[in-house]
Design brief:
This protein has 608 residues and is α+β, with helices and mostly antiparallel strands. Helices cover 41% and strands 17% of the residues. The strands form 3 sheets. It has a 14-stranded mixed sheet. Helix 12 packs across helix 13. The N terminus is likely disordered.
């Protein structure tokens, strides 16, 4: 029986609703993040949209220009979202009216949380068939699929098959034939259901709250892209800071990118499929050509979501404004901070080339000092060209470290020019900061390199400066670390106390410690091995010093024994008896000479 209830009669209960259960995600992104931006781009104004399953309420806010119907299984969730949707159906897919179709169906939470345990069980294929039937001819379906072999499972300390918490309502793996396990199987299921699979985006670092959506086809083709390298590293480094993992997810994601497997290793995928208006026309709608290659969370609601589009002249990026977006020329209180973000700079072509950090790491791992020297000298020369007549660098170039500079074989360029220094910085400090960041990552990350293991981070920075053709000293590097602390504090919104604590932490970075930030068991083990090696070296040095002191002490004792033996001999005594009168006579002569001098001096003065 169908009933309606408050508020405002928007909630429909066809039966099968779950009255004491909630599916709303606990972790949410500002304004829904890249997923909400993608949904807003796919939905034209005035379209009828079905949002199937639990989604971030911010996503519904981004669809305010459309007529939204939510399909949920949780009644408390429907009450919480009632003011954000025109209509809510609670009870699972079986409760959808058979005669209703929609322009766009969004199932970005997957199909498992769409089905209610209190109603008829349709299974994955059954839920897909019901949602496909709700897509009008010419409409589209945006569907999420979790990857059972994704990066999140490879780095997790708890195996997925051991989960027993409430959120593990359905645990799927590659052995579950009811669920597709990869992109090819998903495309096959969608084709059988009568849809035309189109664009697929890889979701990083977590499919439920992705901060980066990257076109899977472009990930496979553009393995050397500096943009993808930086986005994957940033998303995975920031997405696992609150948990200890088995291995560094950022390193694993970047390795997968350069191996052409970043899309296959993604925690999940969002696939867009179309229902053809004409069943005899198998072509994909041309509108997909305007879909973004990448959508990246900027971390600032007032800025929006960064999107990258592929055009005739290459990749171009821009900002998708959110409901609260505004683009000030400078950030609030920018005069009090070391850096700010200029949203207007995120427009135009994306610089091409490989990330300088990746090129330097590759050369260091291969002990290719000539390549390291050439890259660093080119980097230092490029920075010098950005300096003014006073030798200071301003703007985006002042923050251009190895992780934000791309090199295409001929030219260096800042990848993300939106972050800018509030005040110009000395050129040597800018270079020292970039080299220190690379040296800290190289040593604390446990990478093999051609330099002595006894070098600390500051010492390696000085060595890298020499390779770059600049004579850096430790005082300059220390100043660069202070600048790094101030910039990082501005980027993360830390207060004065947090900045001081961060500066102390950065100054204390040592080769025997793990990287700053999230830790992995692999990195902790490598840090332990380095500490053990250092302790072994110090123990050997202590043993050598102790042996040297022991030998010197033995020699001193032998000398004392010899002196004692000689002082007790007959010849020593006879010699002393002969020498003593001579010493006394010598002392008497000196005393007489002093007295005579004292008597004659006044007479000589009178004669003069």
């Amino acid at each position: 029986m169908t009933t309606e209830t408050a508020p405002a009669g928007r909630i429909t209960l066809p039966g099968g609703e779950m009255l004491a259960w909630s599916d709303l995600p606990q972790e949410r992104l500002a304004d829904g993040g890249p997923l909400a931006a993608l949904a807003a781009r796919l939905v034209p104004p005035g379209a009828r949209v079905l949002v199937a399953g639990p989604h971030d309420p911010a996503l519904l806010d981004q669809l305010a220009h459309a007529e939204v119907t939510c399909l949920l299984r949780s009644h408390p969730d429907a009450v919480a979202l009632a003011h954000r949707a025109a209509r809510l159906v609670v009870g699972g897919p079986a409760g959808l009216p058979d005669d209703e179709t929609y322009d766009v169906v969004i199932a970005a939470a997957g199909l498992d949380p769409v089905e209610s345990v209190e109603g008829t069980q349709l299974g994955w294929d059954g839920v897909l068939a019901r949602l496909v039937a709700a897509v009008r001819p010419g409409g589209a379906l945006l569907l999420r699929l979790d990857n059972p072999l994704g990066l999140h499972r490879l780095v997790d300390t708890t195996p997925w098959y051991a989960r027993r918490d409430d959120s593990a309502w359905a645990i799927g793996g590659v052995l579950d034939r009811a669920h597709p396990a990869n992109r090819d199987q998903l495309r096959a299921r969608l084709s059988v259901a009568g849809l035309l699979p189109a664009t697929c985006w890889a979701a990083y670092p977590d499919v439920s709250t992705p901060t980066a959506l990257l076109d899977a086809d472009h990930l496979d083709r553009d393995a050397g892209s500096g943009l993808f390298d930086a986005v994957l590293h940033g998303a995975c480094a920031g997405g696992f800071t609150s948990a200890t993992v088995l291995q560094d997810p950022a390193r694993l994601a970047v390795d997968a990118l350069h191996a052409g497997r970043a899309a296959d290793l993604a925690p999940g995928w969002l696939t867009l499929a179309h229902r053809p208006a004409d069943p005899t026309d198998p072509s994909t709608p041309t509108a997909d050509r305007d879909l973004p290659v990448a959508l990246v969370q900027t971390g600032r609601p007032e800025i929006g979501v960064l999107e990258v589009l592929h055009g005739p002249s290459g990749w171009r990026w821009g900002l998708i404004p959110t409901s609260d977006a505004r683009t000030p020329a400078v950030a609030p209180f920018a005069s009090r901070e070391a850096a700010y973000r200029d949203a207007d700079a995120l427009s135009g072509p994306v610089p091409s080339g490989r990330l300088l950090r990746t090129l330097l790491l590759d050369a260091a791992l291969r002990r290719d000092l000539s390549t390291v020297r050439a890259l660093l000298q080119g980097y230092a020369g490029w920075l010098a060209d950005q300096a003014d007549t006073d030798g200071r660098i301003a703007g985006a170039a002042a923050l251009a470290g190895a992780d934000n500079v791309v090199f295409d074989g001929e030219r260096y360029a800042v990848l993300d020019p939106s972050w800018r220094a509030t005040a110009p910085l000395p050129a040597d400090v800018v270079l020292a900061r970039g080299l220190w960041r690379f040296a800290a990552g190289l040593l604390t990350g446990g990478y093999a390199h051609p330099w002595p293991s006894t070098l600390d981070v500051v010492g390696l920075t000085v060595v890298l400066g020499g390779l770059a053709g600049l004579d850096l000293d430790r005082a300059t590097v220390s100043e660069a670390v202070e600048v790094e602390a101030a910039i990082t504090a501005a980027l993360h919104g830390l207060d004065a106390g947090g900045r001081v604590d961060l500066a102390t932490e950065l100054h204390a970075v040592a080769p025997t410690g793990p990287p700053v930030g999230g830790h992995s068991y692999q990195q902790l083990r490598e840090a332990w091995l380095r500490q053990r090696e250092e302790l072994t070296r110090l123990a050997a040095l202590t043993a050598w010093t102790d042996e040297l002191l022991t030998s010197r002490e033995r020699a001193l004792r032998r000398a004392e024994a010899t002196i004692g033996l000689l002082s007790g001999s007959l010849s020593y005594r006879v010699g002393r008896l002969a020498i003593t009168p001579a010493r006394l006579a010598k002392r008497g002569v000196r005393a007489a000479k002093r007295r005579a001098t004292a008597v004659l001096a006044p007479k000589q003065e009178e004669q003069q």
